[in-house]
Amino acid sequence: MSHDVLVLYYSRYGHTAQLARFVARGVEEVPGMRARLRQVPPVAPVTETAMPPEPEEGAPYVTRADLGECVALAMGSPTRFGNMAAPLKYFLDTTGAEWASGALAGKPAALFTSTSTMHGGQEATLLSMAVPLLHHGMLILGIPYTEPALSSTVTGGTPYGASHVAGPRGDNAISDHERELARALGKRLADVARRLGTPA
User: Fold this and answer.
1) 109, 121, 128, 151: which has the fewest C-beta neighbours closer than 10 Å?
2) Which residues form the domain of 68?
């Protein structure tokens, strides 16, 4: 029997989406676990602007049903001034019913982000994403220093979650350490969910 781990992200230029795919690979290294990749749609200041029902590229848009059907959540966003991007926050703001019912309580969660610069707010962004998940009663997992790449990386990677430094022009490829740590995070999340036996 396969159990889905929701890998949810917002990505403007594709870097966070790439990181999501490495997290998903790590999830699927755990027997019986499957990654369910989903993205949130962009939001616009003009609220009448409507998005197509399915994105032109990348993963399908997330629904609130995805939250309840999955045994764990990996959530990613580029940084916006040390905070998560508005589209992801907008989606989380619609999850009041899941909060009231405890749909996510007791499920493990992990976080990932991408910034343009080394000190562009990676850890603050990861922590900002953790706050609403703590309100939902989720169990937040990071990357332990037992992962050798965490002590060796000179690019992305933090104990709070996986990360990528895209560069001021967004032309940095995901480094070997960033890839390794994203996969390790996905694998750890899926393994904890499997051992918890979290019901979907």
Assistant:
1) 151
2) 3-196
